Amino acid sequence: MTVKEMQWDLAQLVKSDDPDEIEKELDAAVASAQEFQEKYAGKIANLDAKGVLGYLEENDDMKLKFEGAKRYSYLMYQADSTTDLAKKLNDKERRASMLVAQSLIVLQIELGKLLSETPKIVEDPVIKEHKHYLEKILREVPHKLSVEQEQLTIIKDKNGIRAWQMIQGDWLSTRKYDIEIEGKVKTMPYGEIVALYEHADRNVRRLANHVVYEALGKDEILWASAVRAICADHIQMCKLRKHPTMTSQSLIANDLDQGTLDSLMKTIEKNVGVYRNYLKIKAKIMGLKKLGSWDIMAPLPNAPEIKYTWKEARKETVGAYTEFDGEIGGWIDEMYEQCHIDGEVRDGKRSGAFCSTWHNGKSAYILQSFNGMMGDVFTQAHELGHAAHAYLGTRAQKPSNYEIGSCIAEVGSIFGELLLTERLLTKAKSKEEKQAILATVLDGAGMAAFQVSARFFFEQSMYDAIEEGKFLDGNTVAALWTAGRDKIYGNSVEWLPEMKWEWTMKVHYYMPNFRFYNYPYVFAQLFVYALYRLYKEQGKEFVPKLKTILSAGSSRSPRDLAADVGFDITTEEFWQKGIDQFAEFIKMLEDAL
Ligand SMILES: [Zn+2]
């Protein structure tokens, strides 16, 4: 099979890419999970450490055995959802995954019970490799309900919160927005009009924001009903599951502790001035007294438009990673050489970009739509950082130790973006080009670290308000949102009044079991900036440290991983290092004026 350079070659994932064979494999995955369940159901309580090890290894082997067919079906659909074959295989894969998960859930509950009754198993040297995996299960045990209640919870979420999520998504995607550009009224769906937020013309950006948020505000009853019900549900579920705080559930999922989260958010609060200073400088570059909310993510007006071919992009990303480490650079080049990146723009391809780990192949597959813009090269560098993470992690860890939480998952990718930044800055031909690169970096980091923190404050304030007995109608929620937002922005930005409805469009607020999705982004951004600062201080001595972090998968907690490189993430001093790097980029931007 020959493939074009910008298309991925999925056939490597499977022994045979005959669709009948793939379907057989998916059926076999379900049968094998059922056999596994029959073998262990009711018997886990009697296992000793060696027995638990055997159980975990068998489970890992099963995941590896059927990984290829599952990934093949999933990725084929992501790349082109229009063909009947892709639809069929994707559907089959989703059903198979659900059946496998159903078979395994009972066993996981039994394992949790065993560990809570015999915690010394976790400490047994026989099972050392899986220690942290078992610790995580143990941490969840006190918050688990009975099997019947857990099953009911799944049904409740599926027909409750998940239904709100579907309404939110369907509502947004089916509204039409009228906008007048250059004297002509155009009608656009949400997905199209939001692209105008980054339009070169300031007035178009402003108008697009106005049109969208004014319309969203008109449906405030819908949004407030959803958010109010979802937040109240979370409060009640936390009580039922005996979670001490509203963040407790997400802290367990993210493998973090409350003290670390508090230090992180306090550091952000203390440093809002750093971000506001950047916004002031950006306003100056744009020739404005003050940025409008519609300018925060806008491209600089004097940014040169530089286009990259696929070959040039490859040269820059491989070069950036190779300058850091030859081995990683080699793997990045292999991603192109072996056709593991799907960059072609085509109909039926999902939007955005992602990297999917291929554990058996000790590699990964990347999807993006490459249009040759500088942003596309940054996206590629970002996803390739995930791939480097996959190359290192799959070599060192079994699947059960490769369930990487959101805080650590972005380490390779954000670090990779910084490596590309460095390379492009040294090659920049004009000060305008330098400014454009640095503003892109600062816009992204400002969004991830600061704007997302506003969403954290906002979310917390909604639970507090409900606990205080307040009724969350649309205007109350909007007031909580603007209060959280203003904590970050102060009066450094002019907001359109209708931007008080900004919270309505954020899908995460409507997703089941996704409370406090936000702070891991803040964590990742500052964590990687702190690591990058260490790299700048230590040079080549730092390289093996990053590789250790990326090799660890989920076998260690973020706190222990950071401790390995000499960081204490429970302290504000640590997080300040991340802010210092943000300030360093601002200084570089000022030097380039
Ligand atoms: Zn990412």
Walk me through the structure.
The chain is mostly helical and 593 residues long. Helix content is 65%, strand content 5%. The chain contains 24 helices and 7 strands. The strands form 3 sheets. Strands 4-6-5 form a 3-stranded mixed β-sheet, sandwiched between helices. Strand 5 (354-358) and strand 6 form a beta hairpin. The relative contact order is 0.11. The mean pLDDT is 94. The structure holds zinc ion.
Which residues sit in consecutive blocks of at least 5 with pLDDT less than 50?
Answer: none
Mean pLDDT across all amino acids: 94
Number of helices: 24
Question: What's the total count of β strands?
Answer: 7
Given the helix and strand composition, which structural class is it? Answer: mainly alpha
CA-based gyration radius: 25 Å
Order of strands across the widest beta sheet? 4-6-5
What small ligands are held by the chains? zinc ion
Distance between the termini: 52 Å
Task: Bin the strand percentage.
Answer: under 5%
Shape: globular
Helix content: 55-70%
Largest sheet: 3 strands, mixed
